[in-house]
Here is the input.
Amino acid sequence: MKNDYQKNIRNFCIIAHIDHGKSTLADRLIEMTGTVSQRDIKDQLLDTMDLERERGITIKSQAVRMIYERNGEEYELNLIDTPGHVDFTYEVSRSLAACEGAVLVVDASQGIEAQTLANVYLAMANDLEIIPVINKVDLPSARPDEIAKEIEDVLGLDASDAPRISAKSGENVQQVLDAIVDKLPAPSGDENRPLKALVFDSYYDNYKGAISYVRLIDGRVSEGTKIRFMASGKVFDTTEVGAFSPEFVPTKELKAGDVGYIAASIKNVADTRVGDTVTNDREPAAEALPGYKKITPMVYCGIYPADGAKYDDLRDALEKLQLNDASLLYDPEVSAALGFGFRCGFLGLLHMEIIQERLEREFDLDLVTTAPSVSYRVRMMSGEELEIDNPTNLPDPSTIEYMEEPIAKVSVMTPDTYVGAVMELCQEKRGTFKNMEYIESTRVLLHYEIPLNEIIYDFFDNLKSRTRGYASMDYEVSGYEKSDLVKLDILLNGEMCDALSIIVHRDRAYGRGRSIAEKLKEVIPRQMFEIPIQAAIGGKIIARETVKALRKDVLAKCYGGDITRKKKLLEKQKEGKKRMRQVGSVEVPSEAFMSVLKMDK
Amino acid sequence: MLGIYLHIPFCIKKCNYCDFVSVEHGELIDQYFSAVKNEIAATGKMYSRKVDSVFFGGGTPSLPEARYITGLLEALRQAFDVSADAEITLEANPCTLDRPKLAAYRAAGINRLSIGLQAAQDRLLAMLGRQHTKEGFERAYGLAREAGFENINIDMIYALPGQSLEDWQETLDFVLEKRPEHISAYALKIEEGTPLYREVQEGKLHPANEETDLAMYHAAQEAMAENDYTNYEISNFAREGFSCRHNLKYWNVRDYLGLGAAAHSCIDSMRFANTEDIEEYIKNLSGGVLRYAASEFLPEKERKLEYIMLKLRLKDGFTFFDYKSRFTKDFREEFPEEIRRAVFYGLVEMDDRGMRPTRRGFDLQNQLVSLLTENL
Here is the structure.
């Protein structure tokens, strides 16, 4: 039974592949509904982080309430902006669950991409009404008719009256607003039943604490409501509720069907996890909303301050980032080569890069990061089970019965001319072919199962270069499988460097060992002695390179007593040295620890 | 004691590898020299110390008519207490020297000439953009000896693009046969912004590799030693009693005063320099105004860095006594770990009195200095 107030509410999100124009469309919608005054308008309004604007991606979910008039009635449109990357699939799924509908943006020249598909399937799984929109129709390469057909054939959606727009120029964007009102269902739900609100994101505010972004399914909440998070069991007193405009605007209460925020002096974002259900502590709902998952990191790496004295600064910075990002995990660890630092867990590679970049930019830290690793399951002879996310901690192989590694379901969308290249790459990466579908006459969707540790190595770079950028991919970790894994160690001048160890499949060890040794030879500067670089498995050397000794190194003459230049050179060298790590007797530049990951060729 | 450097920033044509301050047009010469005279007059009052070395560098100090140089020297003697046995050096380009000029220099008291040969192969000279030939050098050198110069330095550069070890050996033989009192042999450094740098960038020239550079350096050291030249500084060689007094002031971290555009000074731990802009320099000094473009009082840390960096260019290094008298600390107690490593890597030798670079320490001087000053 729909309540009267609900019939004029529409909750929706926009799904699109990177660069297909999601943020631009959002900007236009906000602008055309007059939500943000003209003078406050800047590009990618909802992408508040510099990093988001620069990279053209959305990292954090945002929401905005827009008022739109149609046929003499006012409608409240709540747009929930979702992250657009595979690393954040779970977050996307929770944002979708908070909506009744989705606007699917497809680029009129590019067509459907792997991620579009993944997100559309997610939306369908959440029973969302989908409005397809064909964007960038003003580009000369646009082929809207073909794309409309593709949407119908591949996704089974009716695209006959899909708005054909240019989000950039604003052309036909009004049709999108009209379609949202006309086609998307209003929320249902009963304001008189016990409170049930879905947390789709959170934000840490210095004064208000962790603020939960919620969609109310049933019930109501207002200042003073004692709320309980059903997964964590934590209870708080509501201090404020409100809507997004897009800044926080306090309101009297939120009712079933509303999208808004709840502030309750929550100290820790971990207490308001994405996907959790908020209920009324005095009159709790019988059961929580489905779909909550405690997110577990998929990718791990060591992060160390380049300057050992900055350890505390790094810890403080991680603490601050975690305030807004409960999916970031970190634990102190010590490396013989790198000193004191942290083992950090991330949702995926992009998440890792973002965190590293934010640490360096927003906190002005110089970092040394190690190559990423996945989490392995180790079954010991003793029957004990271990989870190993740092290769250094792998026990002696003779004590291990077997090991398991995470496997990902990978889908790659590619023009059919590159099918051979993509298949070759997937084979190289120990992939198992599952099946292949034709999306349209010249585009193919390939399904593979590939070990996650191969994906985090250089899969994406390789895929892009082998398909000239035409292929797109999506992946999801599906489980663990037994695997013949070994620890590959790197010795510099005969001494093992723990920070360079990796876990790798036995068949790949020789190749990886060789390429790491070659890479290190390039990045380690020549020093006063010859430096052998060796790759070894359990004491057996499988690859060797040598950095030749430096034999002549004299600064130029100082002419007419001008020694300032020479001094500057020395200072520069000293700066460079600060970025070096002493591994035994060898000085290793910080970037060496990551460079082992970079693509061959 | 004070050393005085005078910068003469004029050249017929700037060499392809040169990035010192110098211009090719001579119309400013007159104004420039009167500006330097003004600077001499202005600074003369400030320093009562005896001057025991004067060095005309450039640019090409031998380019302007001799009267300009002798005029400066005269002004210098009036304003400063230049000692009777002061070493007075003038840098000369072979194609600018003639009998009357050399005679005028002698008469004015210039007692040391530094002549740039650089290489003894005309094709290499052309590549470097030098304005003279090997033959032109021979002529100039002969004239200088005839004029009575008994203390001559010959400048050479090695590790040139396209220079073979044989070329270099030939240059060494040619120079040693002349028996100059002093020889400088520098490895070419290809400086950004020079024509040579561009040609290397464009792939037209190929810089010498490190092996060749080292082989040439060692060949020079051997040839010099055989002919009784002492390698008293990394790139400088002298017969008994002919080390360059002026340049030793830099390496010994003694005071020197620089006059003229772009000239640098170091007096009582103050470092300062004139503007590199010749016209600005003329403008300042035409009104007798001393205006230093850069000046800094060196904190102890930097003075230590400079001390180590400069002293270890010398064969004799430094004594712990000298270090302590400057910095009131014992070097050995201050840098025990750094010293241990420098010795371990065979870069220095030590005894109770002091520390000096080994031959390897000369080869790897930059490494030696960075190592010792790492934690400074």
